[in-house]
Amino acid sequence: MGCGRTGAAIAASLDRDGHSVTVLDLNSGQFRRLPDGFGGRMAVGNGMDADVLERAGAREADAFVAVTQGDNRNYFASQLAREIFGVQHVVCRTKDPERGEIFGHLGLQTYSPTSAGAEAIIAMLPNPGPA
């Protein structure tokens, strides 16, 4: 769910690896981010709507990835996918690390680009040693 830069890259990679992929986004214009030759399905709708998830194939899905701009939207759709549709592998992106921690305690696998980015940048800096 979400066909921004991250969602499109994930969908393209999974499609190249031979997976059956459905990309869901509120805005059909976002599908332009998918590469030529993308073999997956494209569905327009709100992933916080159970009927939309049903039509997009959530009941048959092995995995669900929510990478929209909204942490709450990602959380709600991820919970629907996991609890209503029984999707086993659910990943919910959270830009706010504190929300990610809360969502994790509620049973979701989360990814925070904010935390991951900060850790990567710190790892690139020289270690000055003890002060």
Write the layout of secondary structure elements.
Layout: H1 5-16, E1 22-25, E2 41-44, H2 50-56, E3 63-66, H3 71-84, E4 89-93, H4 97-105, E5 109-111, H5 113-124
Parallel strand pairs: 1-2, 3-4, 4-5
Overall description:
- The protein is an alpha/beta fold.
- It has one domain: Rossmann fold, CATH 3.40.50.720.
- Helices cover 41% and strands 15% of the residues.
- The protein contains 5 helices and 5 strands; from the N terminus they run αββαβαβαβα.
- It has helices at residues 5-16, 50-56, 71-84, 97-105, 113-124; strands at residues 22-25, 41-44, 63-66, 89-93, 109-111.
- The longest helix has 14 residues, at 71-84.
- The radius of gyration is 16 Å and the shape is globular.
Q: Which residues sit in consecutive blocks of at least 5 with pLDDT less than 50?
A: none
Any idea of the CATH topology? Answer: Rossmann fold
At CATH level 2, the architecture is 3-Layer(aba) Sandwich
Cα shape: globular
Class by SSE composition: alpha/beta
- How confident is the prediction overall: mean pLDDT? 94
Strand order of the largest sheet: 3-4-5
Please give the domain count: 1
CATH superfamily: NAD(P)-binding Rossmann-like Domain
Summarize the structure.
This protein is of the alpha/beta class.
Task: List its salient traits.
131 residues, single chain, 41% helix, alpha/beta, three-stranded parallel β-sheet, 5 helices
